[in-house]
Amino acid sequence: MRTLSDKIGSGSDKIGADGGENHYATVRRAIKHHSGDKHVCGTARYVDDLPEPEGTFHLAPGWLRDAARGKITELDLEAVRSAPGVVAVLTADDIPGVNDCSPSIGDDSILADGEILFWGQVIFLVVARTRDEARRAARLARIVVETETPVVTVDCALVEGGTVMLPDYQFRKGQPEAALDTANKRLSGVMRIGGQEHFYLEGQVSLALPGEDGDMFVHSSTQHPSEVQHIVAKTLGLIDVAVTVEVRRMGVAFGGKESQANQWAALAASAANYTGQACKIRLDRDDDMIMTGKRHDFRVDYTVGFESDGAITAVDMAFAARCGYSADLTLGVVDRTMFRADSSYFYPDTLITSRRMRTNTCSNTAFRGFGGSQDMLAAERLVDSIAITLKLDPLDVRKRNFYMQGADVTPYSMRVEEFATQHAIVTTLEETSEYRVRREKIRAFNASNHILKKRLALTPVKFGISFTLPGFNRAGALVHLYQDGSAHLNHGGTEMGQGLNIKVVQVVAEEFAIPLDWVKITATHTGKVPNTAPTAASSGTRHERHGGARGSGKDQGTSRGVCVRQVRRARRQDHPPGWACDDRQRAYLARPAREGRRHEPDVAVGDRLLCHAEDYLELADGDRPPVPLFRLWGGVLGSDRRYDDRRDARDPRGCAARCRQVAQSGRRYRPDRRRLRSGHGLADDGGTGVGRGGPSEYACTLHLQDPDRFRRS
Question: Can you give the pTM of this predicted structure?
Fold first, then answer.
């Protein structure tokens, strides 16, 4: 039998923390995804791949397809109950506990009770022997509704007397009204920002298995197992400990499953409780897109005062969000919209207001960026409007309004400390991208081409991480040590393809100086690590400034930081194996980034070709774990909903650096089409540094070179 000593040898190889060299240091290495082989072979199990217990029933939601709002005056389900294969039909009256799946204020019904508030709201649940029988039976209901006129847009909500679901908020700095009145120049505008569907590859799915004493075990595709546990317990009238939720992996989520998995887990558990059999629900893709939340869309009204050189003197921005019929996570989403309404610019006198508008549509929810995409888009539109009015280069206007010494306080009174990094990154990117030269070439090209047009932009990003709800900035980890030196690991984060599990495994393996395959990580399980926060807010792995592999004095409220502390205490035998900890820390960090893009739009047919893009991202200290380069590329190519590589953008020496990666890509798509037509390939130019800035900076550039050879009709 192999022993640990056989594996790691003797002497300084054993434990790196004791002063010797650790030959098993893995934190800074680019290691393949924990489930990479399984993904390629098709053996990675998602909820729908789990073996179903004998006699498992399948569920389908029932809803009315010709009404969006109104009182239910008649609900005839006899034809549904008598349909082939149907075992039971559940309504709101059959829920034993509380008919609510809201993550916030308790206004989101699991099953509609007496009225329909949006098109697609679930009214009843069909339990059948097969999924096909359940779906067919769900179409047989006779439902009569006394219809009312629905409110479906922000403008309608404003006209209808301002139907709000949450209080109006504002940030005020200085005297914006007076500053606007005395401004040299003044400009106003209205911008409408549409919503977005995430289209996660794995749809909403849950499998519930009843246990002894009324307990319930739920497999759910969710970013927030503890919340699903709480919702299911509330739905069944149980205490939390009677419900266990397990998540092995998700087929992508990034917000679309932070709160949206609650309803389907509650329905599966309700059916399992009612029938005494295992019950499974997997939404059809159309139903999934109809019944689950989207990214919030906004109406933005802005007024800006500025000088003749483009310097902003005052800003008044009003955000009105279409929230849907219930609050869901709107409070945090729109709060973050306000936090980043300045993008990367200093507003001397500011008034930023927000309104959360209630509409008869499916409740919008958390998406990647969590309100930060819409506000920064509005800020960049504001700056572009100034540049167009003054006939100045937009980059010059942007640089003139960057945060700087003496102009470093945000509208919400936070001081920006790293504005020098912002200036250095933009200056470097402007040089390496040959921004000025390309602008002249593009101007000449557009003057001589009437159909194809090119454009170039270099825009900043200031992005805040962690939760604005401080109680969520925590994590838990559980490590068991075995006699042969192997380790069992469980943590409260969820794996949705981003590589969280392998990063936490790397931490444990390095701290114990054992091979990676000696660390066994198991599915996220509420019975092992309780009271977890959702895997969201860019805090799943360590993005904070302190803590980490070297074990600084500030262990982080993340899976990585908690594991470091857990492992070291276990190794010192301060606590027995299995001791769990729960750290909390407030960490809302603004990390500057810059992006430059060049597009070639076809003004005749609407095609748009992404020709060139360069990105810099400042990620603080040089002791952090690898930052997957695919995340940066995913941001650049996010409109294409693709990413091309999973390699780590990490200097092999482990010190802070700026490295440069090159990709050749031609991406042509039309705004009205979902299917993308693209040719893509990747090449590395050797990782040459552009070396500028201090040791706390880390940046990466991405170039999408002119892709004429990839063009397709």
Answer: 0.79
